[in-house]
Structures are given as C-alpha cells and as structure tokens.
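Just scan my protein:

. . .
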Amino acid sequence: MIKIDKFFKFNNGDIIVVGCSTGPDSMALIDMLLRVRNKYNLSLIVAHINHNIRKESYEEAEYMKKYCEDNHLLFETMVIESYGDDNFHNEAHNIRYNFFESLVNKYNANYLMTAHHGDDLIETVLMRIVRGSNLKGYSGFKEIVDKGTYKIVRPLIRFTKEELKNYDMVHGIKYYVDSSNDKDKYTRNRYRKYVLPFLKEEDRGVHTKFLKYSETLDEVNKYIEKERKKVIGRVVINNKVQIDLFLKEEKFMQKEVLYYLMNEFYNDELILLNDKHIDLILSVINSKKANCYVNLPNDVVARKCYNTLEIARVTEILTNFEIEFDNIAFLPNKHFIQKIPEIDCNNNFICRLDSSEVTLPLIIRNRRFGDKFHIKGMEGTKKVKDIFIDSKIPKRDRDLWPIVTDSKGKIVWIPGIKKSIFDKTKNDNYDIILKYS
C-alpha cells in the first residue's frame, strides 16, 4: 500500500489546501491524506474547480461536496463561468492556481498539494522539449516549490496513473473519468494516448528515469541561477534591461535573463512561453530601430526604447483625446496643465501667450498624423514626430503626450519639450501663463 508519509515529511498541525478534482489521482491523494490526518493533526481544505465544460461537472462537484461532508473536510469550490483565451488548458491553469493561492491565504496554509504524478511529469517534459524552453522548463515540474509563505507539494510524483488507479480499486474509492481526456485536440492528451504507451513498453519504470532527468536539470539550473543573478545585477536597472550591457553577455545567459524577467508574467510554469518568443525579444533588442516592440501572450509586451528594454503588461488602450482648456486640464498621461498668475522660470514646462495672437479657446489634444510645429528660434516648421524622436520620447508615451493648439489648429506648445513662435518672454506682452506639471 502506498503510504504518503513515507515520501513526504509532515509536521504536526500542518494546514494543507488540496487541489482536488474527482479523478482517480485526486481521490487517491485525498484518501492518503485522510489516513494520516489524525497521526499528524492535519487541517485539510479541499479546493475543487468546476471547469464548466462538461455536463457532468456539476454532478462531480456535488459528489465532492458530499464526500467532504462525510469525511469532515472543509470544502471550497468555484465555477469558471467563461473562458477568454484560445488555449483552454493554459487559462484553466491560471484560474486554478489563483483560486488555490487565495485559499492558502484565507486559511494561512503552509502547503498546497496537487495530485500530479509520474505520467504527468513525462508528458510535461516531452511537451516542453517539443515546444522549446530553457533548462528550468525542460525539467518539467518539481516535487516541492517554495513560494515563500507556503510550498507547492506534488507528493505523488513517484507513482504512475496505473498505480494510483490500482490504489483506488484496492480501497474501493469512487472516482470520475473526465471524458475530455480522450479528445485528441488537446496536446497533452495526444502525448498521453500515443507517446506514453510506447515509452512504457520500452521500460515500465520510465517515469523514474524522467524524474531523475528532472532532478538533474534542476540541480544544474540552481547553479545557473546563481550566475544569472550576477548578470542581472549588471544589466538590469529599475526593471529595465540596459541593452549595451546586455549584449556584452554570453548568448546563453542573455536568454536566461529574459526567461527570468518573463517569470513575473507567466509564473514558474512558463506555460505560454517558448524559445520562439525569446528569439522575438532578441530580434527587438538587436533591431536598428530606436523604438520597437513585440506582443507576447496574455497582453504582455517587450518594448525597446533606445538603449533600454522593458517587459510589461499592456494595461490600457490608447484613444484620441481633445480637451477644451479653461483654467486647468487633467490629462490622460496623469499630468495636468493649469493657468497661473505669475512665475519666474522660463523652461519648456512654462508657456506665455498673447491672446491677441491666438484664437481662443485653447485646445489640448494628442498628436495627429502630419502635425507640424514652428519651433521658437528656428526657421520653418518641423514634424512633431521628428521632435519626439529628437527628444528621445519613448514611443509608448507619444500617443498620450499633450499638444496645445489654438481653436484654428495652430500648435502653440508641446509641454515639457518645445515652445513655438507664439511663446513670449517675461519682457514681452502676454496675458496667459500656462504651466505643465
């Protein structure tokens, strides 16, 4: 009989959130934990996700609820009402782990346990190799992941699905079979149905070889992490990659730095990311363009601005704006322009105008295609686009940068950047003073 505490050391009074479907793996895990609950005085919270894609989902949720009531287990559940991503498995994974983490925080748990087993590890490793990844990705998943305030534990990693089904049969444990596991449209299912049987015919204990492979890569990765930390200290400042310094590093370490930076957006699993995305980011870094970017999965963008690269989530959709100015205007870029009575300084954040030379009211808007500007002290006009480039304004900021015009469309000021021929000195005649803050 499989004894879970033979492979995992429990402490008295552990609080454990258990990610539990009604499948054979999950039901085996919860039964094993129940058998040692009193021995270690464990507090067990069952977390069940209703994925809402099969008609049986609600029946299974009710069974899990009744099972928990009969065994005096705390039961938490959620229903995924809708999916917005084209990749169901990826989105479901993110929703599951967000839900699990919320329960870990709610109950102040020190462990989150899931029923991932040896067959799951084989599938994950093979999928990562085919998709492309780094050493951390190629190792699949770890038995224990330290998340700081709690640990994710996969105590069944040494066992196959067949062994867990046999455990259920011996102990008379009821479980449900997810019919979607037979559908070839899901990548993991194809590995499960066609690749794993071949490997197991070659060696019934192949899952232990993959576990050894995973542990070996993890040991190597720990060494790499130490070296990568040194590189990050040299090339990343204020969460931005300094491109000139970055390009001096070895190609392998460049990729490791980028994978590390992507972790913030894709978690340790890096499910949505592969080496093709890393190559795209490197192409942006090596581009001759001063400003360029590449869109990545889940609304993440890698954006180059002159000598820096920033990886960030796109959180806003830029739209055109036009504001009729009175005494103060609050702007989309979180700055504001106000009319003031007097000021001594005369920099580009201050503009003095003579109302007899412009047509009121003033208008504050974002840039328009073909905008031209007559810069104070220069002959002729210059494109606003070129002014932004010369001033090294990041491309992401240009669409929200305010342009001040009069009612006839003449540009009178680009706040913080350049003044027009309409700007007055302190010794000239003027009746309007504007300040950009």
Observations:
- Residues 355 and 431 are 7 Å apart (CA to CA).
